[in-house]
Amino acid sequence: MSKNLSLEEFAAWARSVGLNVSTEHLAILMPEVELMLQRIEALQQIDVTEIPIEHAIGGV
Amino acid sequence: MNSIIEASSSEIANGIVKKAFSSEEVVSAFITHADEYESSIGAFITRTTEQAIEEARKADSLLASGKSLGPLHGVPFGIKDIFWEKNSITTSGSALDAAFVPKEDATSVRLIKQSGGVVLGKTNTVELAFDPTGRNATYGMPNNPWKIDRMPGGSSSGTGAGIAAGFFPMGLGSDTGGSIRIPSSLCGISGIKPTFGLISRFGITPLSHSLDTAGPMARTVEDLAICLNVLAQHDPKDPFSKPHTTVDYTSSLHNGVKEFKIGVPKEYVWDPIDPETASSVSTAIKVLEDLGAEIVEVSIPELDWTPLIAVSITTAEAAMAHRNRVIEHGSEMDQSVRRRFESGMFISATTYAHAQRARLKYASALAKIYEKVDILAMPTVAAPAPVQQAEVLTLGNSNIAVRDAFLRLTRIFNLSRTPAISIPCGFSAEGLPIGLMLGSAAFEDSKALQAGQAYQSVTKWHRQMPKIQQAQ
Question: Given an 8 Å threshold on Cβ–Cβ distance, is A39 in contact with B347?
Answer without folding.
Answer: no
